[in-house]
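> call design_seq(struct)
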């Protein structure tokens, strides 16, 4: 073969795997890059109030990704909005729950360069561009790493595609986890540069890669990568030293010195984010993580290594039958990739410079599986390492996936060059082991399937896995038999196999929805934007998805974020079932609406789905009789002599068939002369059976009667329980003693709480309490102008017992400015959580913040007119950014100056 033909063949062996990566992106996110779909769970957004009432979404692709739509994506959108408005440092986000750091720490992932680059594109395409950048970074990193250890660029591309389509990288998509994990391959490339070249120039990328890792948004898995990279560096240093025949000395310490120096430079680059993050963690209750090392994944999920859909998905009729949430447990590498890994360990080394590498990759990947699925003493020892004690150890699957992916890359190159192994018993044994292993796992899946229907639903994905095993093993066998074109055969078939498995897997879990589903505007949004002002709202049973209303500039009490211990205790005092997880919280029901704690937290409005009935008594509850009658267009009426406290009507529906999507229950409230006082309606849903509540606005109703409520069904007929009069029974839900009012019923129900105190308020006196439960019990008994303080704080604040007038001049996310005109000394109370990093100034002079009302900010203010400022100023905010800038300049100078000197000579 002449050199030209050889070069062309080698070029195709690189281009074909790269083409597979491009096709993967085009198929999975192509429509989202063009804005035709939204790359995210917009369909899941539509399942909660206020969107569910008017949704046209038929089903949900993946119900396991609620964190992305109530926390991650809203944070990205808020940061994007702030950057677009000219705020170059959106440090704090105050709209959800206690508020949390935005760009001040890496926790939200909004300062990741990947996220910031994606923010240059339209909002609806942002998540798709993040995924493209992640894939580009990860695949580029594996290719660079592969070339450094003697593999082909094509092998690096195959390894990269396996990695980005692995279980961890697919299931955690749209979280910061994948933004962080995408950097993993570059770390190992940097270490190889340092070990092989041993120059400062070779070490220059290292601090930038570590900084990119730290800014990814999920430090926990960054720690995993650093530990594995450290072990890798030590091993490779020993192996390269041995292969070079070196006995030691100062030269051998140079890679260590370069690595440590690069790490120190990385700390200088990101200290302005890491230091506030560490300070925030110190004030956060993480005790629930103390036993994390004991948590392991259900070993049934090991079958997902080759067959990712074997246990079902997050949204199908049969459900997911493992005990572990699939997002935590699916460990997919690929059936074809498993065969490639077998090839890597049974075929001869491609390059002697790779000695020890494949066994390190295999051992580290196996250790990740052991930690994830077996645990025990190994996990206990691992959690003793620094920064691992409060870590979810089973998420080492992220770095474990990269180890197996690179091992598969070695196998890809080994297969392409395996003609010399045609007589190797070990090689043929490895080839046969792949199909045998696949067959055994398939038999286990078939035996463990909970039903025939389940097996039928997953059979297609099982067949694809079997085909992938057989195709990869077949190519392996042919390359050992063929003398010509064996490399090109592998370069064609293997990327196609990996691509087919990747697309099949992602299609089951990556939602691509209509762009309009991205927090679309509703009448509820419009009402709250007009009326909420400086105060708060709260969602009941995940209405507005635990604080996703912040996308529309609405401040909410619920959220999905870490909170201070005091703030969390106060929320539990208002509603003991507020927290569905240590970080996710929403009003569990409407019983808590009368809590004086919510008054102090300045909760002016509550939002609930139209089908969630509030507390109250049912008028006419004993009038039902056995049987069923038809409810349709013909109105049914009930006369109320006392309409005070009317909250809605109640129906009893019995079994029925399919309901048209546009079927609606309409309620009209009329005065004694037949004039319309209020009207409301709600969609009749397929789940509506038994007792059904329809809200009625109470703001326009008279205090005395009589009034008539008239009910009819539009667009359908249903069977309802009859009343004693013979027609469908209609009851009225009333709560005359409750001050909470229904003020809006379109799309969702809005409850107004007139007793809520202003978020900025003046306290002219104080009482003392210590425990949150004690303080919460006192909140309904003390005057509104009395603050609750701890005894030590109360001794430091002067109270004159006189009122004050407040003018809120600024209420931005990380800055508030209030003009106080006080007749006597007192305390300006701001009903936001007192957290690290917040400082107060009165007339430009720093003053200490005190904890008011058990968890909130209190600023002592003397008599007279004063300007009070509250600002978020994270620790080191005045010096650490300068350190980052100087470190950056130093690194750039260390690269440019030697180059200029060489050019000058």
């Amino acid at each position: 073969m002449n050199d030209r033909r050889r070069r062309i063949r080698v070029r195709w062996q690189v281009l074909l795997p790269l083409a597979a990566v491009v096709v993967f992106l085009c198929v999975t996110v192509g429509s989202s890059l063009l804005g035709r779909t939204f790359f995210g769970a917009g369909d899941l957004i539509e399942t909660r109030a206020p969107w569910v009432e008017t949704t046209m979404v038929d089903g949900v692709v993946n119900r396991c990704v609620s964190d992305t739509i109530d926390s991650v994506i809203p944070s990205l959108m808020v940061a994007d909005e702030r950057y677009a408005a000219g705020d170059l440092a959106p440090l704090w986000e105050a709209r959800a729950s206690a508020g949390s750091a935005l760009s001040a720490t890496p926790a939200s992932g909004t300062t990741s360069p990947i996220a910031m680059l994606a923010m240059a594109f339209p909002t609806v395409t942002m998540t798709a561009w993040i995924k493209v950048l992640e894939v580009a970074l990860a695949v580029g990193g594996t290719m660079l790493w592969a070339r450094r250890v003697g593999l082909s660029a094509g092998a690096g591309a195959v390894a990269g595609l396996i990695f980005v389509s692995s279980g961890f990288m697919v299931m955690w998509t749209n979280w910061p986890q994948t933004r962080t994990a995408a950097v993993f391959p570059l770390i190992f490339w940097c270490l190889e540069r340092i070990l092989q070249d041993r120059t400062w120039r070779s070490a220059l990328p290292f601090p930038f890669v570590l900084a990119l890792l730290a800014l990814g948004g999920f430090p926990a898995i960054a720690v995993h990568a650093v530990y594995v990279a450290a072990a890798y560096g030590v091993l490779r240093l020993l192996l390269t030293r041995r292969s070079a025949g070196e006995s030691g000395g100062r030269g051998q310490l140079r890679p260590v010195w370069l690595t440590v120096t690069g790490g120190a430079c990385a700390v200088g680059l990101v200290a302005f984010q890491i230091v506030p993050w560490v300070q925030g963690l110190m004030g956060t209750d993480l005790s629930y993580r103390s036993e994390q090392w004991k948590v392991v994944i259900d070993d049934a999920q090991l079958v997902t290594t080759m067959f990712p859909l074997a246990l079902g998905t997050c949204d199908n009729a049969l459900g997911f039958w493992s005990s572990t949430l699939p997002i935590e447990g699916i460990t997919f590498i690929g059936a074809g990739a498993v065969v490639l890994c077998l090839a890597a360990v049974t075929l001869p080394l491609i390059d002697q410079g790779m000695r020890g590498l494949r066994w390190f990759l295999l051992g580290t990947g196996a250790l990740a599986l052991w930690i994830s699925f077996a645990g025990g003493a190994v996990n206990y020892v691992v959690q003793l390492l620094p920064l691992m004690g409060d870590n979810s150890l089973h998420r080492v699957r992220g770095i474990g996936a990269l180890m197996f992916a690179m091992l598969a890359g070695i196998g890809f190159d080994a297969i392409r060059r395996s003609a010399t192994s045609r007589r190797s018993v070990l090689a043929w044994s490895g080839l046969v082991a792949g199909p045998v292993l696949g067959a055994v796992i398939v038999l286990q899946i078939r035996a463990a399937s909970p039903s025939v229907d389940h097996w039928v639903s997953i059979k297609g994905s099982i067949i694809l896995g079997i085909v992938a095993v057989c195709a990869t093993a077949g190519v392996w066998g042919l390359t050992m038999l063929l003398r010509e074109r064996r490399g090109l055969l592998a370069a064609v078939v293997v990327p196609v196999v990996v691509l087919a498995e990747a697309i099949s897997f992602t299609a089951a879990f990556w939602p691509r929805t209509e762009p309009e589903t991205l927090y679309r505007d509703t009448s509820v949004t419009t009402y709250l934007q007009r009326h909420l002002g400086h105060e708060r709202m709260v969602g009941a049973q995940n209405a507005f998805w635990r604080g996703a209303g912040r996308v529309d500039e609405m401040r909410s009490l619920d959220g999905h974020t870490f909170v201070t211990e005091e703030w969390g205790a106060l929320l539990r005092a208002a509603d003991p079932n507020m927290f569905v997880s240590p970080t996710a919280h929403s009003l569990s029901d409407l019983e808590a609406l009368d809590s004086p704690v919510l008054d102090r937290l300045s909760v002016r409005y509550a939002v609930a789905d139209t089908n969630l009935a509030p507390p109250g008594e049912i008028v006419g509850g004993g009038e039902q009789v056995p049987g069923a009658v038809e409810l349709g267009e013909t109105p049914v009426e009930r006369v109320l002599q006392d309409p005070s406290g009317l909250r809605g009507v109640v129906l009893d529906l019995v079994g029925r068939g399919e309901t048209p999507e546009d079927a609606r229950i309409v309620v009209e409230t009329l005065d004694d002369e037949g004039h319309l006082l209020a009207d409301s309606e709600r969609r009749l849903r397929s789940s509506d059976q038994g007792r059904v509540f329809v809200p009625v606005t109470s703001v326009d109703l008279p205090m005395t009667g009589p009034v008539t409520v008239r009910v009819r069904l539009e667009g359908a007929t249903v069977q309802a329980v009859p009343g004693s009069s013979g027609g469908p029974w209609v009851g009225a839900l009333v709560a005359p003693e409750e001050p909470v009012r229904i003020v809006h019923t379109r799309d969702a129900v809005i409850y107004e709480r007139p007793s809520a105190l202003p978020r900025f308020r003046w306290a002219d006196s104080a009482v003392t309490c210590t425990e949150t439960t004690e303080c919460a019990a006192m909140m309904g008994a003390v005057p509104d102008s009395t603050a609750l303080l701890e005894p030590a704080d109360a001794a430091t604040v002067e109270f004159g017992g006189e009122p004050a007038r407040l003018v809120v001049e600024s209420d931005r996310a990380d800055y508030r400015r209030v003009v106080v005109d006080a007749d006597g000394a007192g305390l300006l109370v701001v009903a936001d959580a007192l957290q690290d990093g917040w400082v107060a100034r009165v007339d430009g002079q720093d003053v200490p913040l005190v904890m008011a009302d058990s968890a909130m900010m209190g600023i002592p203010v003397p008599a007279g007119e004063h300007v009070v400022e509250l600002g978020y100023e994270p620790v080191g905010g005045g010096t650490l950014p300068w350190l980052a800038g100087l470190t950056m300049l130093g690194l750039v100078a260390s690269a440019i100056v030697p180059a200029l000197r060489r050019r000058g000579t």
